[in-house]
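pls design
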């Protein structure tokens, strides 16, 4: 085991983390990639990716991730299971406490831990996520040409998803548990005025029907005139329950950035928990954070685009920014051991 700290640790093994790993490894930074609790990130939940550059016939989400990992390993990146549970980022080298019980020390850190889509908790969603159930209309909408689909949510994201899906689906029905949208007035008006977008007010999803072979084939929904029917149904209150035939279900109730380990650090987060990156005077954007040597890429700092291709681009930017920072701070000594087992009870 090396007695020096790592030059670079990359937290996350989704598209942005893998892109950062490829660029960092080619720059001879010997990056260590922490794969996280869900190796590969959200793309592993997508069966087919048709809008990633260079794959005109499409590519499986898991296949794309594995290709990226193979590419990074080919250039010398090291992969390790585990995620960061706490981080000391005030000094050099920085210390990362892992879920495996180890403490890593590193000079630079790329945070590419992504964001997790919120799920509804409907029966069948675990089996059907990626098989007709999706959290990304831009990614999967084209697979539902001619289908009737459901969108779950009531904010701007749900309206955007519904309007996008209306380009492909026969009908789009927005399920909202109340009778009033959270969306901005302009987005709500656009959705309400679209001929192919319908609204099911005071309605929630209980169960999704289908299989991984057949995809989504239907759903069971509940409604109550006073709203929040799922909670009332679970409490034993009478609600109206209906079976509907649909070919797709889209969750649009937001994402949770995976930044819990950064909450007590100097890295700046916005109100929703996304990492805030700096703006450089001589560049249109940067992946630098408020902490020297810490960079962020992908969905963990991007609440707007959240696409595989943009995440890959930001991953390469983070690696280039980290390389430049490491070169400029080469005179700072990297002390202490690379990984120290944590004693039980610590």
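designed seq:
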């Amino acid at each position: 085991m090396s007695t020096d700290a790592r030059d670079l640790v990359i937290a996350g093994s989704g598209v942005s983390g893998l892109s950062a790993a490829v660029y960092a490894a080619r720059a001879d930074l010997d990056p260590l990639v922490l794969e996280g609790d869900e190796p590969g990130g959200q793309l592993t939940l997508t069966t087919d990716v048709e809008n990633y550059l260079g794959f005109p016939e499409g590519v499986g989400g898991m296949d794309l991730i594995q290709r990226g990992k193979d590419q990074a390993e080919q250039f010398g990146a090291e992969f390790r299971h585990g995620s960061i549970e706490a981080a000391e980022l005030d000094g050099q080298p920085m210390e990362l406490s892992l879920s495996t019980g180890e403490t890593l020390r590193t000079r630079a850190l790329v945070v590419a831990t992504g964001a997790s889509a919120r799920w509804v908790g409907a029966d069948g969603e675990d089996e059907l996520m990626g098989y007709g159930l999706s959290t990304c209309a831009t990614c999967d909408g084209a697979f539902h040409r001619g289908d009737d689909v459901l969108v779950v949510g009531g904010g701007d994201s749900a309206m955007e998803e519904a309007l996008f899906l209306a380009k492909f689906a026969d009908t789009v029905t927005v399920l909202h548990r109340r009778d009033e949208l959270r969306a901005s007035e302009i987005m709500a008006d656009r959705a309400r005025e679209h001929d192919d977008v319908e609204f099911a007010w005071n309605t929630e999803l209980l169960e999704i029907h289908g299989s991984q072979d057949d995809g989504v084939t239907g759903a069971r929904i509940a409604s109550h005139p006073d709203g929040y029917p799922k909670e009332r149904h679970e409490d034993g209150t009478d609600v109206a329950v209906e079976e509907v035939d649909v070919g797709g279900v889209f969750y649009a109730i937001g994402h949770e950035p995976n930044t819990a380990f950064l909450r007590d650090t100097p890295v700046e987060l916005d109100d929703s928990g996304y990492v805030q990156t700096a703006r450089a005077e001589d560049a249109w954007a940067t992946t630098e954070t408020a902490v020297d040597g810490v960079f962020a890429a992908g969905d963990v700092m991007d609440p707007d685009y959240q696409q595989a291709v943009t995440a890959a681009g930001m991953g390469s930017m983070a690696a280039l920014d980290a390389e430049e920072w490491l070169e400029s701070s080469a005179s700072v000594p990297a002390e202490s051991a690379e990984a120290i087992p944590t004693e039980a009870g610590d």
